[in-house]
Structure formats: structure tokens, C-alpha cells
Design brief:
two-stranded antiparallel ribbon; 5-stranded mixed β-sheet
């Protein structure tokens, strides 16, 4: 994966930033809390955007809640780091920002981890089939000084949880499509890991959607 390049840091108009195709919706509760924090302490870190070479437009990588809070405060510009990067790097940055800073429920955590597995193994294909002695042999790539480990090991280490939890969450989320995820987000009660595992056992897509609905 090509390393990212920081182009510049500056304030940019909120209306110039493309925020489509985000992995999860903005939480109004989180926005209210963040709005108060910005009013009292200021913005503690810039949002992250990428410049699309073909169009020159700016697309959000991380900072959806900060943008929503700025809009709530009726501000028109926001400090941002502007990157030149690959799609995979941008996806991993968005996912890792949420895993590190967001209060994710079980459903969103599973969805983010499943997406991270997909992107991680595409960015680092050498980790996909590596196990046992092969994994140990590939753990360090001295050419680019990057640690290369399996997705599960890397993510478990990053989050401070056991590998079994990561595997269960990813396996459950990989069965869900966008419609099913939205139905579960709209459910009156929060979805648990055991709920997701039961839904994952349903092999018929139509039946699975009806269960989620």
C-alpha cells in the first residue's frame, strides 16, 4: 500500500467536503456532547480529508461528528489535514478512528471489524493466508520496516481483546447487508453478539432480512 502524503493543514469550508458513504450515521447524542466540548475547549484535533486526484474534491476520512458539531455551532469552516492517499489507507484510517475514539455498540463494532478485515487483507494480501510458521516468517517486512501480522492478531492487539472475540464479531457481521444493518440499527433494543450469531446461522438471505426486520 502506497504511504500517505500530508498535503497541507488549513481551514476549509464544510460545504466543500464530501461526507457520503460513511460506515455509520452520526450520533446526535455524541454531537451534543462534542458541541459543548468545542465551545469550552476548542477543537482538539483537525478532521482528516483526502484530495481526490481526478476531481480535486475533498472527501472526509475521519471527523463526521466534529463536522456536525461545527454545523450545530453555525460555523462554516473547520481545521483539516488534507491527505493524498489510497482508497485502502483512507478506509483503514476511518475505521481505526472510530475503533479508537467512538462509543460503538456491538452491531457497529462488528460492522467496522468486518470492513477492516476486508480492507486490511486487500492492503496486505500476504497476511490473508499466513498461519503458523508462515505467519512468523512474514511478521516483519524489512523492505518497508512495517510489521505484517494476521488481521485477527493485529486487531486484537490494537483493541486489547482476545482473538476469539474478533473472529466472532467478524463472522457475524459478514452475513449482513446494508438493509439488514439498517433494520438492526432501528431496532428498539440494542443488538447483542448472541443476536448477531443467531442471525448469521440463517443461510437464506430473504429469511435473514425478515428476521432483522
Amino acid at each position: 500500500m502506497r504511504p500517505p502524503r500530508l498535503i497541507e493543514v488549513r481551514e476549509i469550508p464544510l460545504d466543500d467536503i464530501d461526507t457520503s458513504n460513511r460506515l455509520r450515521p452520526v450520533s446526535e447524542t455524541a454531537v451534543k456532547s462534542l458541541t459543548h466540548s468545542i465551545e469550552t475547549q476548542g477543537l482538539l484535533s483537525e478532521i482528516q480529508v483526502r484530495k481526490i486526484k481526478k476531481t480535486g474534491k475533498l472527501r472526509l476520512i475521519a471527523g463526521g461528528h466534529r463536522m456536525a458539531a461545527f454545523r450545530a455551532l453555525e460555523r462554516t469552516e473547520i481545521p483539516a489535514k488534507i491527505w493524498d492517499c489510497t482508497d485502502d489507507w483512507a478506509d483503514l484510517a476511518e475505521i481505526d478512528d472510530n475503533l479508537a475514539h467512538a462509543e460503538l455498540n456491538t452491531l457497529d463494532l462488528a460492522v467496522f471489524l468486518a470492513r477492516r478485515k476486508e480492507v486490511y487483507e486487500r492492503a496486505y494480501p500476504e497476511t490473508k493466508a499466513a498461519t503458523g510458521a508462515d505467519l512468523v516468517a512474514k511478521r516483519w517486512d524489512t523492505a518497508d520496516n512495517m510489521s505484517v501480522v494476521s488481521f485477527v492478531t493485529a486487531t486484537a492487539d490494537k483493541m486489547g481483546v482476545d482473538e476469539r472475540t474478533i473472529r466472532r464479531l467478524v463472522a457475524a457481521a459478514r452475513t449482513l447487508g446494508p438493509r439488514e444493518i439498517q433494520e438492526l440499527r432501528d431496532a428498539p433494543k440494542r443488538v447483542s453478539l448472541s443476536d448477531l450469531q443467531e442471525i448469521a446461522k440463517c443461510g437464506d438471505p430473504t429469511d435473514r432480512y425478515e428476521i432483522c426486520r
